[in-house]
Amino acid sequence: MRIPILKLHNYLLISIQTEIDDQTAIKFQEDLLAKIHKTGATGVVIDLTSVDIIDSFIAKVLGDVVSMSDLMGARVVLTGIQPAVAMTLIDLGIHLQNVPTALDLEQGLVKLHQELGG
Amino acid sequence: MNPRSCVNIHKEWDIVGARQLGREMAKEIGFGTVDQARIATAVSELARNIYLYAENGQICFEYIYTNSQKGILMTAVDTGPGIKDISSVMQDGYTTSGGLGAGLPGVKRLMDDFDIESTVGEGTKIKAIKWIR
């Protein structure tokens, strides 16, 4: 299974709609970095509205992809984390403190726009 | 009647299968969405531990009832190498796999009751219960 990555001007948009297994998550990490490299995208929004579980492995992959993209010069914002997922992550002891987040896709794009100055 | 449903864990995709079954059973007995997510996440952590460290094992779910409460009991059993020092694996941040080390202490926090038994060379058995509030 592959998670589609859409390009919109200087941004990449990803909406995760499927149940993520470990391999899909790793593949997505590689695909996203390759796509950033290829397109020169400066901002990325990963929308998690449809994701109803994030366990410690998926959280690590997501946190890592934010740091990796950052190293390459692209800013990543995670959006749409469900209330139940947020509560579960904190119970697990995962705070994703250095990861930029926004309420939804729209707010995520606004955040990128502000931080990257258009 | 108290049906018991099990998932065998030996390939990576079984982790997804186990958490889907856990969530379905949690929903069926009446857990809300937040507790469904907690249960599914706990299952995912236990299933991944089996997959990573023991290669083969099983997670079973059953409903449990007392006079005043009902809940779900999950039992994760494997015949892997066992855990030498249980107190260290129950510490936050302890990992031998390069993960976040959130697994077992995380599961303990997500569930209401948690019990682990392990014998080196024989395997590990974890029981965890979540009660409906």
Automatic annotation (TrEMBL), chain A:
Residues 1-112 form the STAS domain. InterPro entries: Bact_StressResp_Reg, STAS_dom, STAS_dom_sf. It comes from the Bacteria. SUPFAM superfamilies: SpoIIaa-like. This is STAS domain-containing protein. It comes from Oceanobacillus aidingensis. The lineage of its organism: Bacteria, Bacillati, Bacillota, Bacilli, Bacillales.
